[in-house]
Amino acid sequence: MTQQDLVLISPEVREVLTDPVADRLQVEGQGEFNCVSCKLPGSTDQGDAVSVVVFQHPDQMVIKLAHQLCVESVVIPTDKLYSQLPSVLEPEADDVTTVAGVTEIPGQGKVATLVFDRERGFSAFSEAGDSIDPWFSALLKSGWSLAPAAISWPRPVPRWKLALDRKQGIGEIFAADKSSFLDQLPPLPPGWTELAARNKEILIVAGSGLGLAANEGMGSAVRRSLDEAAQQGNLLAGRIAVSLVAMPPALRRAKQQTVRSGLASELRTALEQRARPGQANAGGLNATTELAPLPARPKLHLTAYGDFPILLVDLAAPPEAQEVTDTLIERMLDEGMKPFTGWDQGPVALPPEGWGYVLWPSQVVIMAGKGSDDMPRKLLFEPFRPISSWYESVKKSPNSSLGLMVGNMNLPAPEQDQQRFQQAIEERMAAGDVLACALMGMCTE
After folding, report:
1. What is the pLDDT of residues 317-334, one digit of tens each?
2. Measured distance CA(316)–CA(326) in Å, rounded
3. 265 near 119, Cβ under 8 Å?
4. Side-chain half-sphere of 230: how many Cα atoms within 13 Å?
5. Which of 70, 151, 165, 440 could make a disulfide contact with 37, Cβ separation 3.0–4.6 Å?
6. Are 11 and 126 in contact (CB under 8 A)?
7. Cβ–Cβ contacts within 10 Å for residue 77, how many?
8. d(C-alpha 445, C-alpha 92), whole Å
9. C-alpha distances in angstroms, 92 versus 144, 175, 235, 385, 435?
10. 135: closest CA among 34, 230, 269?
11. What is the pTM of this model?
């Protein structure tokens, strides 16, 4: 595949742009870009395939690039100017109402069923009138099927399963990549778990805007809504295997009427963790080679010095992990990270070549340049307790600069004693136990 083949321009987009413009875009679209859908950077040099997306308004035409994994090359008519679109091609992490019921399938008998109703979604329409829904697209690619009717027997969804604790009446659905698709079951009607256990599979159905309410079960109103969605081509279905397990008490979750199932964020998660060439297909950022193993899960503290936002990475390793800690610190020193002994030392040093960050409101990845195999590495990819004011301060920081400080500091909790927390940081700095640099990177929603 040539570089030019990585830039996809569909026939409808080419017709709108004209051949000369489309041909030029196939050249100009090569190299680095920011995806209009997932907001993450990409690069054809790294093997990312690009889609050219056109937003067409009567008074404006805007051309954007996207990962082909995010959205296909398409013309999207809109009655709003591009700058007025609240969320361009980005599915929101919506609440999904989940209803459990028992369905009578001709030739199969009674089947335990779960229905997922996403309250809101994003749908665009091509000039041909085809609906483009990123959520539906992701589920179809995962093996779900369009349901011809609410009462149907679809094909199995490969490698998906329900881990069911029959005794407790709780369970969790896992997708093919073993990620959690539904972390807890809704209230179950009598006999549901027995049917699931006996049949060793359940029926799953999904749609948008079905108007379902928690606890209503599979009544006639639900069936009418599902039938209408199926007739409009807006209903997906599948069958997944059931694995009987005994969940330990620590993993048992309280039942809720409405749960966040992760359905709407399924596509976004896959894109944020998409695999690069040469990496395992499952994981992406999770599978990216680490600079060195972390001795333990670090504690991330969001703080600041004046107006300068700082991410403190406290390795917080126990004594028995000291060798692992020393290896990580030595590797960072070899890369060019410098000890920071105090604010009177002067400005924080620039990072080693190729280091940077991508920051979400509640998670961060610190990239640590490239290894000897010319593949990207990471220092860490971790969630943190969100603080919106700190996140906004990073966005407003000059050049989106962020102070990174790393050390085995074993700091006290700042919420318990802020003064002691700051004092402990300064003591670790003075002892030469803190490495620091001023990272450049990007913030994404």
Report:
1. 777 788 888 889 999 998
2. 12
3. no
4. 16
5. 70
6. no
7. 13
8. 10
9. 21, 19, 19, 20, 37
10. 269
11. 0.42
